[in-house]
Amino acid sequence: MCPYTFVRTRLALEDLPLGARLDVLVDHEPARRNVPRSAIEWGQEVLAVDEVAPGRWRIALCKRAC
Question: Domains in the chain: how many in total?
């Protein structure tokens, strides 16, 4: 559930080097909107948000900020 999804996403990104890609899989529609918005606010790049199955999304992020 949000906001835990973004907290876990942020912790995962912190462990990655600049330029690394992180794919986040979510099955909660508000997370599909909130994770990318929060990532952008934090200075990260959203590469894509794709529906991979009904009600399931992959959010592709690229680490651009520490």
Answer: 1
